[in-house]
Amino acid sequence: MNEDSLPSWYDKLKVDASRTPGFTEEHMSAIERMAHGDKMSLKHSHSRSYRSLRGFRAAFTGVAAAVFAGALFLSYMGDDLIGQRGSAITSTPSASATSAPTAPPKPIRIERLTGLLGEQLPFKTEEVVGIRLEDDHHRMQPFEVSSDRLYVILQNLNALDMAAASIIPGPEHSWVPNAYTMTFETAGGSYEMGYDPSSNTYGFSNTLVLADDQVWMLMQSYINPNGEWAGFDRLSEQARNEQKIVEKDQITETTYERSRFNIDGLDYLGWEKKFLPLSSGTLFFDGVLGAKGLIQSLTLPGRENAYPDVIKLSGTIFFTNGGEAYTTSDGIKVGLTQAEVIAKLGPPNARTKTQWSYRIGDNLRFHLLFESGVVRFISLTMPV
Q: d(Cα 372, Cα 232) in Å, to the nearest integer?
């Protein structure tokens, strides 16, 4: 090896130990005397010290070279060795024990198209603790019906007249048949059937059965949560819950002229006639009247692509637009504050935070639904 190419630290290995500060022959002799209990003669100690010093230099040079070689080896291979060692001792977490698979829901089967649907269900409606709606095409997350709204579906199933509510599937029902699955959870297991919002029908293997309009409105919270139908359903339910705790001072006996509650000069029956020429809508079965009906909507010309201005349900017509065409003679319309309503019309006969109701004749039939202190909807209910 060419010494000119050696690194500078290599010369330090060749330095005579006897000339290195702190390491002299006397030091070496003293070390040997200590090692042999100082029994050696001074004469022999000098020659032994010299021989030991030569041996020490050779050993020291060899050890230094070995240390240097080892350092180089570790600098190149250390990370790999550590990684290999680490990977060798790293244990893979054992898979956690999986719980026993849940039994799949049992399909609800209908044996006859007579009597009430509730009589053929494989469970009692009071046993149901949860209802879930799932999109069969997995375009949306499953929808859990809140516990305080279960009654909407269960009440409908219990009283559904199979002979009157059943329909024969036709082309208008086949484009998204049973597009959603409705699952009922009970302590004894789960059960499922289809639900098609386009036709508002419960789907069984051998027939389709019309749901009522309240079920369809509830389902809008999942299918079309930003629509006017979902908004009206949500506020109506909120008002219903508030009515359970209405205080005496929230009810007044003020009597108003009937005509003050006409919207654009029409009462409930007058607006109902506006829907008669319409043939389109979503079918439902009205269990109270024992007849089929249509959920329908009206929109001003030029607003056909917008949300509807007026919507008709079973026994209820509600208004979503604050335009002049949907205003009372006192100027009551969508968009007013509570203070403006009091100034224009007067206090309601019944009031909660969400709904103010006014009496027409003997019944509360003119209603204002508020959201954030502003009229969101006006509704008229059918005379009884």
A: 14
Q: What is the CATH number of domain 106-223?
A: 2.60.40
334 compared with 90, residue with greater pLDDT: 334
Residue-level length of the chain: 384
Who contacts 182 (Cβ-Cβ below 8 Å, separation ≥6)?
A: 131, 132, 133, 153, 192, 193, 194, 195, 202
- Calculate the alpha carbon distances from 183 to 117, 147, 202, 234 in Å: 16, 14, 12, 22
Backbone angles phi, psi at 306, to 5 degrees: -95, 175
**Hey, where are the domains in the chain?**
106-223, 238-381
pLDDT in tens, 244-303: 877 666 778 889 999 999 999 999 999 999 999 988 899 999 988 889 999 999 988 777
Q: Which two tokens stand for residue 218?
A: 């509830």
Q: Quick check: helix, strand or coil at residue 378?
A: strand
Q: Which of 98, 116, 326, 131 is nearest to 228 (CA)?
A: 326
- Average pLDDT score over residue span 118-139: 93
DSSP 222-287: HHSTTSHHHHHHHHHHHHHHHGGG--GGGB------GGGG-BTTB-HHHHHHHHTT---SEEEEET
Question: DSSP 3-state assignment of 166?
Answer: strand
State the helix-helix crossing angle for 213-223 and 150-158, rounded to 10 degrees.
140
Burial of 228 (0-12, 13-18, 19+ CB in 10 A): buried
Residue written as token pair 């090692």: 35
Q: Lowest mean pLDDT of 13-17, 179-183, 216-220, 311-315, name the range.
A: 13-17
pTM of the model: 0.70
